[in-house]
Amino acid sequence: MGSRLLAITTIAAVGLLLGPAALAASPPLGTVQVTGSQLKPALLPPSDFGSHFQASEESDTGGSLEPTAIAQNIPGMSCVNFWGTLGGPFFGETANAFDHVANTQAILNGASGTILSYQQIIYQFPDSRTAASFYGQTYAKYRSCHSFTDSAEGSANALHMTTKSVSKTHTGRYDAYQVAQSFTTSGLSGPPLHQFTLFTVDGADVFVFILTSSSASPPARPSLATLALRLIGRVAALR
Predict the structure, then answer these.
(1) Measured between alpha carbons, how far is 91 from 37 in angstroms, rounded to an integer?
(2) What phi-psi label fits residue 30: left (phi over 0), alpha (psi between -120 and 50 degrees) or beta?
(3) Does 14 reside within a domain?
(4) pLDDT band of 174, cuts 50, 70, 90
(5) CB count, 10 Å around CB of 42?
(6) Distances 111 to 14, 133, 152, 160 between C-alpha atoms, Å
(7) Which structural domain range is residue 158 located in?
(8) By C-alpha distance, which of 91, 134, 111 is closest to 215?
(9) Which CATH number goes with the domain that contains 165?
């Protein structure tokens, strides 16, 4: 599956550059694995995120497990490439499912202080050690990427991203970390948009939620942690 940039949602223009797909391997003996096609129905429905949210993009890795022979070297990736391909292939996963939901009413009305979109990503790895390695490498990469510019769409549309904080937390009993970032786009006036990313890990699974908002603070309800716990439970029910 082709990789895409992670979603960039602006109030002035609905520009969505997303990024998922996945690659991975044969499971070790005794590990229960499911395919991308089986993971996809476990993704949270748009109604879980609030009113006026609609699915705008989704993907999964199909009806068979993916080979893990090729995995991207996260420590060696540039900040732009890491940010742009997160959710995409070659991270060593055996299956992947992705969904993006957008608050189309808020975007069209240019509402301030509003949640504009969510992304939810499930990575299934061949074992818990591989999942923990991916989780740890992404945490280290976020901490090293203080600010960067993505000019892939040309200087007039260059995106300027600033990382404000990377903090360890918990999602229920699961280890987690949250990233707060802000970004602006050349050629578009107005205040910056804000992106909040939550990673949490449960055994061989890593769950990622990405919230894009016009508010500098993430919402209290539903919190990213609450959403992640719902998703963890739905995936656990598959096994």
Answers:
(1) 18
(2) left
(3) no
(4) very high
(5) 19
(6) 13, 39, 28, 22
(7) 36-236
(8) 111
(9) 3.40.1000.70
What CA–CA distances, in Å, run from 18 to 47, 68, 133, 231?
A: 21, 22, 24, 20
Give the burial class of 51: count Cβ atoms within 10 A of its Cβ; 0-12 exposed, 13-18 middle, 19 or more buried: exposed
* Total-model pTM: 0.84
The two three-digit tokens of residue 62, written as one number: 């199909």
Q: What confidence tens digit (pLDDT) does each residue in 22-31 have?
A: 334 444 544 6
Is the separation of the CB atoms in 72 and 90 below 8 Å? yes
d(CA 149, CA 155): 10
Backbone φ and ψ for 185, nearest 5 degrees, come out as -125, 130
What residue ranges in the chain does DSSP mark as E strands?
53-60, 95-103, 115-124, 147-150, 159-171, 174-185, 193-202, 205-213
In a domain, 30, yes or no: no
